[in-house]
Amino acid sequence: MRRLWSGLRPLTESVVAGLIGLGVGALIMWAWGYNPWPAYRVLFRESFGNTYGLASALANATPLILTALAFSVGARAGLFIIGAEGMMYMGAMAAVAAGSLRLPPGVHPLLSLAMAALAGILWGAVPAALRAVRGVHEVISTIMFNWLSHFLAFYLVANVLVDPVRAEKTVSVAKTARLPLLVRGTDLSFGIVVAVGCALLVYIWLWHTVRGYEIRAAGANPEAARYAGVSPRATILWVFALAGAMAGLAGAVETLGRPPTYAVYSGLTNLAGFGFDGIGVAMIGRTHPLGIIPAAVFYGGLQAGARLMQMWAKVPFEMVRAVQGVIVLALALPELIRIIRRLGRIRRLRRPT
Amino acid sequence: MNWAYFWSLFSISLHAMVPITLTAVGEVIGESAGLFNIGLEGILLLSAFTGTLGARAGGPLLGLLAGMITGLAVGLVFGLICAYWKGNQLIAGVGINLFALGFVAFGLQVLGSPGFYTVPRAVQLSPIRTRVGTFSPLIPLTLVLPFLVHAFLNRTRLGLVVKSVGENPEAADVAGIPVELTQLLSTMVGATLAGLAGAYISVSWLGSVTKEISAGRGFIALATVVFSGLRPLLALAGGLLFGFFESLATWIQSLPGVKEVVPWQFIAMIPYVATLLVVAGVIGRVRFPKALGIPYRRE
Prior knowledge:
With 353 residues, chain A is mostly helical. Chain A has 14 helices and no strands. Chain A has a single domain, classed as ABC transporter involved in vitamin B12 uptake, BtuC.
């Protein structure tokens, strides 16, 4: 019974945090003069209540699974890599570049995915080296690299990969490189299979290989791991490489597998945010590769529903990111449930009986 | 090339120095007490937004006050989570940043201006006019504040209390110092200064608020704190240094003939590259409080 409870606890915490987040979201809407009840009803009906909504939720979840994996691998090793955003931009650029070549159908998507993963790895190489050699904290270095990536991607979109006919976007990925759609008339592509496959591989790698065990050991207790002969530098390099590959793939699935344009818009409007949202998704999924999948579907659904909520209830969809921030704040607490119980108990004591 | 060009470089540097220095000096206080707040970026963004609302409602001083109250409130939440409830400081900081991104984008949409909201000149903080140019009144304040914080941390009993909590919370606890309360108040003071910095950006300096107004300055301030090794006077030097790099980017773009040769995107990278180089250069030579970032639990 106790084992069952300890297994369920992370899940309970995520659900409680989700409810807190939605509660604060309702407060914000109410404070700005919206009625939260119909807004939420539209949001959930449109995200999980029908096939189209569900397909959109899964399509939105696709890049989020990958960026959340990028963060989780780092978190498991005790590294706080918040650079998935920048790695993802570079992955998308590489995917568009490789995807617009002339190549045979079977090879083309594979090559494009591989180039995107490689671009993400390369983009993480400098922060990884700075951490391994100079001890520069990855929070600072990866954020600086996010900004460098932001400007480099702006440049590439406007000057190098630009569509000669439509200047507001890059060239579209060739038909041979596109990931096939799974449900006709929706955005859901084969990318979801790539993302879920990556989650499974990362899970196997972290929990069923020696290297993965060493990485988790380094995260749980760096001193002990070092005494046991785990090289901290090797851990840093492996983790950054894997995080870069995952985030790079996130950029790839969003370009190779995202109708209708299969391209990146100027201002990166169809990419911006997936890297940071991935951190929230990773937290909701408790940085577990398999927990990330339902967490990403949940958040992807919120995003899908929020677009329609904006149409029907006129509530700006950015509201869901504020909700996510609150969820992450709640999940920062190691003893969320106990704190809530204690607060409840104080109230009960004060109440005259 | 003439004198006016160099003068503008100096003037932009001073203005760009303010938010980084205020935020960094505030974070020096918070980190001295052992709390590491990576949510500064979010505080800057939120308070730039609330500062705009405050200024439009009741003038520039109300705008600055609104920014400070926003910082204070976020600092309270962060301090409760991290000092009292032993939450993970990095995750709480990320939560603040995500919340700020969503809340400000939401607020800008509600106000009917997707991604952009201006502070009319009439309610901007009026600059000090001198014979050589105009300056924000917050510039002298920012130049003085690090000296006050330096004196507070090193010359007063309370300052030593703050540092003892960051260095060795067990010993401080045994000596009867309320560890959690000290951490909460220190991080709240730091967050309030970040709130002032955010409001300065919109109400006094740039005159508008966008979704990306903070532009990584919260993290550059964190890098400044690393550079300073938690010494407020060096934080001021770091703020001047990073302010200079930021203005250098703006300045180079304004030079005639440069835009045609180097794309603006590469010039805009200068402050971020400089931050990386400076941090990589000084790291290893700075010493941080022993208990920084570790939640204190009484055994």
